[in-house]
Specification:
The structure is a homotetramer. Chain A is of the alpha/beta class. The first copy, chain A, is built from ten helices and 15 strands. Chain A has two domains: about 140 residues, Rossmann fold, CATH 3.40.50; about 170 residues, Dihydrodipicolinate Reductase, domain 2 (2-Layer Sandwich), CATH 3.30.360. In chain A, the strands form three sheets. A seven-stranded mixed β-sheet of chain A has the order 12-11-7-10-9-8-15, with helices on one face. In chain A, helix 6 crosses helix 7 and helix 7 crosses helix 10. Strand 13 of chain B pairs antiparallel with strand 12 of chain C. Chains A, B, C, D: One of its GO terms (molecular function) is nucleotide binding.
Amino acid sequence: MGDLLGVAVLGAGHMGADHIRRLDQVVSGARVAAVADPDRARAEAAVAGLDHVTVHTDPVAALDAPGVAAVLIASPAPAHEEALLAAFARRLPVLCEKPMVPDSAGALRIMEAELGAGRRLAQIGFMRRYDAEYRRLKALLDGGRLGRPLMLHCTHRNVSSPADFTSAMLINSSVSHEIDAARWLLGQELTAVTVLRPGPSAGAPGGLLDPQFALFETERGALVDVEVFVNCGFGYQVRCEAVCEAGSARIGDEHTMVVTTRGGARQEVAQDYLVRFAAAYDREVQAWVDATRRGEVTGPGAWDGYAASAVAEAGVRALETGQRVAVDLAPRPALYAGR
Amino acid sequence: MGDLLGVAVLGAGHMGADHIRRLDQVVSGARVAAVADPDRARAEAAVAGLDHVTVHTDPVAALDAPGVAAVLIASPAPAHEEALLAAFARRLPVLCEKPMVPDSAGALRIMEAELGAGRRLAQIGFMRRYDAEYRRLKALLDGGRLGRPLMLHCTHRNVSSPADFTSAMLINSSVSHEIDAARWLLGQELTAVTVLRPGPSAGAPGGLLDPQFALFETERGALVDVEVFVNCGFGYQVRCEAVCEAGSARIGDEHTMVVTTRGGARQEVAQDYLVRFAAAYDREVQAWVDATRRGEVTGPGAWDGYAASAVAEAGVRALETGQRVAVDLAPRPALYAGR
Amino acid sequence: MGDLLGVAVLGAGHMGADHIRRLDQVVSGARVAAVADPDRARAEAAVAGLDHVTVHTDPVAALDAPGVAAVLIASPAPAHEEALLAAFARRLPVLCEKPMVPDSAGALRIMEAELGAGRRLAQIGFMRRYDAEYRRLKALLDGGRLGRPLMLHCTHRNVSSPADFTSAMLINSSVSHEIDAARWLLGQELTAVTVLRPGPSAGAPGGLLDPQFALFETERGALVDVEVFVNCGFGYQVRCEAVCEAGSARIGDEHTMVVTTRGGARQEVAQDYLVRFAAAYDREVQAWVDATRRGEVTGPGAWDGYAASAVAEAGVRALETGQRVAVDLAPRPALYAGR
Amino acid sequence: MGDLLGVAVLGAGHMGADHIRRLDQVVSGARVAAVADPDRARAEAAVAGLDHVTVHTDPVAALDAPGVAAVLIASPAPAHEEALLAAFARRLPVLCEKPMVPDSAGALRIMEAELGAGRRLAQIGFMRRYDAEYRRLKALLDGGRLGRPLMLHCTHRNVSSPADFTSAMLINSSVSHEIDAARWLLGQELTAVTVLRPGPSAGAPGGLLDPQFALFETERGALVDVEVFVNCGFGYQVRCEAVCEAGSARIGDEHTMVVTTRGGARQEVAQDYLVRFAAAYDREVQAWVDATRRGEVTGPGAWDGYAASAVAEAGVRALETGQRVAVDLAPRPALYAGR
């Protein structure tokens, strides 16, 4: 087993358990070496049947377990900062689920710590960058054939939201995916945000402002609009149309088997992000394992985690105030230069 | 009213009544001058509210009614021959619903009579030639950009068939549309036909061989296959894919509003040919009125009616014998030269 | 010819000539009785070959020409007010191309005059209400199956704009179509508007703010966003997605023959509104002729023309100021009650 | 490395090299333990950079190499029989690329040898059974919601064929995929075959009968038609429409990013089967590795390889004779009972 990358997985909930399954059964070149969860029984259940795995309730102890050469953080966001700092202290490469940390102040501390380590160690889990359709769109935009991008029209719909979802979380949890995707697709920072609030859907839990419509301005004058609707009831839909000077490109339309019955011609719509983006998660973790084994960090990093936080915070203020809010971004350290 | 083309409509059933409505309310430049139906009450009902129309039970009397300058035959097929001959005798231009007459022997008599009149007078109601999608496909094929057509894959489905529909009628009533469309699209005669019979659908009335799969060979080596399924239960679907040396083109996919609900993304499918081809019928009759007022015949003629009959007869023999049957076509008279 | 509705067409430019052709060749039950254009030669050319038409340079003279029973106004917008008032004075039914008049103050005068006439006489040329896809969407929304509409996402793209097109015209000429369509689809007035200005496309003439992104709020809390891009270079695209509480519906995607060649699978995109909405114009004029012959007015009226003006004016102020601008709408007279 | 399944890969050509990459970089739970190719340099190149791999020119020697616990046969078809028999003798599980062996007589010998081994050891590389769309269609048909399948309409197009491709290979190499897919989707054996030959495309190499149109009858009366066109020039297209008693289902339409430019709206078409079916190959090999580690054989087996051969042989005779040819199938041994 010496050749396989030993990974400590922190967090054995829904997402953590899925990553454990992925590392064990899907991804090549890695194995689960340790798992940590405050709920030991949950951690043990997640690795049942796997050999050579140690189980911990303390995440830091998991980092020090035998065979651990890298860390995958899938614990709740408030636990990320401690885990990231501990990993950096051990110079362990990390794949950290989004959001990197709960706020931009914490994100600045993470960047500082990584700067202290003198090299990039963290990849943040913006898995859309690994989705085949997003990559195709990115390649098309970068190729320049359509000219400069002028607008991105985005749609982000969930069947329903978790019980504790707040109006702010439509921005800082859901739209944060579009924030990163827009930054990445356009190669530009977002500079201001406005959030509009149509009358809430009857399907939204009482008090939840759902749907919302967010507008982002970018440093070179593009416009990004996002419909976010987390209790739409009908499906998990993530779409993006890039409108450029010489054409437009659209991804994310439902493309499955067409079934014609008396009711008409019908195409299934994915109901869950783990279905829609299953392959993207697989590719993300495989790419991280491959890069880590080569000693590299190739994916979105701490700067991207920080920028997403800062934009989302401005978005929440825009939602609360009804005003356009400018994004206040710290200078980009040289370690994070390049796109 | 002197400027309007006065039309005698023969037959006031489903199709006749629809044409009367069309001439009155949709088409420009024409008016209904006379109507004939053995059932006088039905004829009167079909023209209720229209002025200057005479009502007849004898179709020939309708041809001689005041103001009649052209004839639209929408009576049952067995009545077509007498009506066509009477119109030719009066040198009246005719639009005759398909089939021109019930068999190819009768069709030869029609051609002979029209040859005797010395000029083309009849247009046959192959309305697909007036459908926007078919015309686009025809223009593409004629333009030559895709090279020589090698195959046509056709689908012809009805929700359900009339009570008295026979296995032979799948060929000589339903597929006759594809027979004409293929001849027109390819600019070639069909030379042989084979009909395969999958096990009948549980939805087909007892004894009806439904669906069927017909294969036509053409004089220059193209292949035309047609699925015909007249009790499919789910919709009226007419599709055609032309496979050529340098590309393929497909028409007839359902293209309507996309509605996404919990069940998935859904597009309505037309349930009836009067819906699917409503605009084609309108264009057909308008084109016939326009040409007739100019003294021309521009649409499919008696030769096309004859060829469709001859091919359909071979098809019925192929269905009955399970063998490939060659089409025996009379020589094409000079009057019908050209496409 | 006594039975046909005699129409005076005012204006013989691009649109007027097209309407003359439509009344003569497409529409049933009407004829062109008179035409007026300051350029007599242009007026004569537009009716060449038609009988029983008088040609005028003075529009009012055309209204008084023999056989005129209705008026179609296709002259430039500044000429509409005089023509409408003259028609009202003669109690002639009118189909008036949009915009009804150049500003909302004039629109109020038109309503006042029609109120003085004591009955509705004017239909305004918002032809999208006659497009098959828009009607299907309207029927779906009215049917209530999708629940309350929350958002409309609209796209309005032209290949290129006329030479004299200004930044304000993106709102008051192009988006005015969406303003009417949104009012009609939702059955609600628009109450406020914000216009965002992405960096202009390199394809836009110098100084033209193109594209723009307009946001409309409605009286019952729905949100309508419109991308307008009049020099997109790639096609004439008009799309609308209605997002409702229980589902979404989308119209306007390009749906034509699919041609597959080495370059991929391709669908043609309409390049011109007269192509995309050809059938809608035909249906609009036919519906107006039919209603007029019955003594009714069934289409969008002076109130709709006024409301579109008032919203568009607020939109232009929003564009100029960068601010959200409330729409100030006069009370709706009883004559215009109902949707 | 003890936990990983050591695989001997026989054949280091295009397909073998791709499988080596897949086992090394994509698939979880396996490693390449040995490789054999008559061309030693090619074998060495295919495993460059991998550790613990032995390189052989003799395939049997590779089976006996240290660490080999399973075999993946990707050598030319004539070499398969010897390799399968040697694997069976060693009771090694095998994944064998299609065709299993070049003819049905050899296929019977393979089944006999596996029967001698007393257990199933071979999986045949019909990778379409692992394609997401095919699996969705299979699940839909098995679920019974659409009723009994009546017809399958299939399309199989390649951009161009290899230099040595013969007319018979359109059936026994290309259509063999549809033969297996139809047997699997319908759960029925194919009983007769007819092959029609439209005039060859100008794009086909001299003498090659391309395209062809094959018709298969099944034991319970369904009909399967296949257009095969291996020099279509425009793309790699694999489509299937299942027409059932209560509806139809279609897979394989091109579903990628829609790019709209002046030319129209365009979707890319895959040019190569390794692109179109990349994920299916990954899933196939992963499923084989997973089942093998559990001591099971779950995929298509020697019976399926034999049946495909027998049907393809009948197809080639049908092509050569122009006649309908019945398929002569040996009785199915109990070892291969079940679907």
